[in-house]
Amino acid sequence: MNANMKKIVNVATPAVCVVALALSVVAFNKTNAANTPAPSPVVASVTAAGQPVDLTYAAEKALPSVVYIVNKINSKTQTVEYSDPFEDFFSDPFGGFFGRGQGNGGTRKRQIQTQPRKAAGSGVIISADGYIVTNNHVVDGADELTVTLNDNKEYSARIIGADATTDLALIKIDSKNLPAIQIANSDDVKVGEWVLAVGNPLGLNNTVTAGIVSAKARSMNTGGVTSMIQTDAAINSGNSGGALVNTNGALIGINAMIYSQTGSNIGYGFAIPTTIMNKVVDDIKKYGNVQRAMIGIKGSDVNAYVDSEKEKGNEVDLGTMEGIYIAEIVEDGAAEDAGLKKGDVITHIDGQKVTQFGELQNIIAQKRPGDKITINYLRNKSKKTATLTLKNEKGNTKVVKDADLDVLGGQFRPVTDSQKEQLNINYGLQVSKISGGKLKNAGVPQGFIIQRVNEQPMKTIDDLQKIVKETSKSKEPVLWVQGIYPTGRKGYFTVPLEEE
Questions:
Q1: Rounded Cα distance, 155 and 149, in Å
Q2: Strand pairing partners for 273?
Q3: Which of 17, 136, 186, 348 might form a disulfide with 273, Cβ 3.0–4.6 angstroms?
Q4: Catalytic residue among 122, 137, 260, 301, which?
């Protein structure tokens, strides 16, 4: 779980031997899959409890709304460092005795050309004007995105926003009157009902597979969404971002991963519920990123906690075997403010019964910082009620925005080879211009070479962009900048990102 999600929950997941969680995106070279002919749409007719279930209607409704996405990552030139432990010795065998030979310590550089890569996945049209939902891992790192519709029309797509935690992304193509899918409420889905997985597995476009909903609110130890719809409908590489639909052809989830021993469909597939998808899409459109609400507890399902205590020889009676056992209260979090304590058991949220952590996560994932929720819980078997005001990653209720490099008010460029040699450094970003902003306020001068920010090496402008974005959303939005002046003198600066 990433740092943000750890602030919400600490999910206890049993160990699984020889079983892999695989993101269902397929990578391929230019020589394969690109020209794979699309098979005819698959339809199914099955029988449930003696009653015929016709899935052809669902397939006809959903297929036009599911697209094929190709992620192209271009060839790039990269400079890599490697160590030559004998370089300093042979050039100056006695340097170590006299304090010489301490330059780059035998480090050398060379340029390599990366190979162009392609990966493929699926997506779902959610509006007639070209908005498409897919998985973050389908579009991650893309230099070019190509979307092919069910009728084989191709479009270039741009990324509107992406969220690694929920593994969702919103992209857009320039077109009108597209066949947008009908979106259902995933909370209404029932275990055992028939569903279809629609996508482009293994390069086989426009593929439909049938199965049932095997479980809801499934907690997966993936570092992201912990409330998934589980299905036994066949999901394979390339299905990522595709549609999981009900018998009416309405979307109930975005296919995201498979659970199997081989990486192909031998086990179960998992989809991100539409309740979470709708929230992510709305946040990306309105704020540019996802507004994450934090309840401020760590814990586990009650039955998991009781079982773990029994293994230790401890007898536990919490007054229930259903609910969420609070193992830890996060300091300054929403739960602490509302008076919840370690050992309490959450049984209901906003009137909804909560029996497992995935259900709690599904409810909280639909909320924003500042939203209020009512919690029913047990303390020493006594029923209690509390109202919580959910907080963000920073511990307040404000909208969290991604900071861009513009907030620093500077321009940057990687140091030149001559600067590296002159200053005896291997990397760094020189501040080539100061035009106001956070750097000027902190006293960082033009010409200063930034080498590390928050203990992370700054080798590229992307490194700096990444650390600025991450830090801007943290509880302590401060950049600790280390570097060197052009004269060789070292310098240190504190650059607050918080708005005054």
A1: 8
A2: 253
A3: 186
A4: 137
Concerning whether 137 is annotated as a catalytic residue, the answer is yes
pLDDT by residue for the chain (500 residues), tens digit each? 444 433 333 333 232 233 344 555 555 433 332 333 333 344 444 444 445 678 999 999 999 999 999 999 987 776 666 665 555 555 555 544 444 444 444 566 677 777 888 899 999 999 999 999 999 999 998 999 999 999 999 999 999 999 989 999 999 999 999 999 999 999 999 999 999 999 998 878 889 999 999 999 887 665 556 689 999 998 888 889 999 999 999 999 999 877 655 555 566 889 999 999 999 999 999 988 899 999 999 999 999 999 999 999 999 999 999 999 999 999 999 999 999 999 999 999 999 999 988 899 899 999 999 999 999 999 999 999 999 999 998 888 888 777 778 889 889 999 999 999 999 999 999 999 888 889 999 999 999 999 999 999 999 988 998 899 888 878 788 999 999 999 999 999 999 987 65
In one-letter notation, the amino acid at residue 120 is A
105: left (phi over 0), alpha (psi -120 to 50) or beta: left
The active-site residue, picked from 240, 260, 300, 472, is: 240
How many other CB atoms are there within 10 angstroms of residue 153's CB atom?
A: 12
- 83: annotated active-site residue: no
Is 240 annotated in the active site? yes
Reduced to 3 states (helix: H, G, I; strand: E, B; else coil), residue 285 is helix
Catalytic site residue from 163, 167, 301, 463: 167
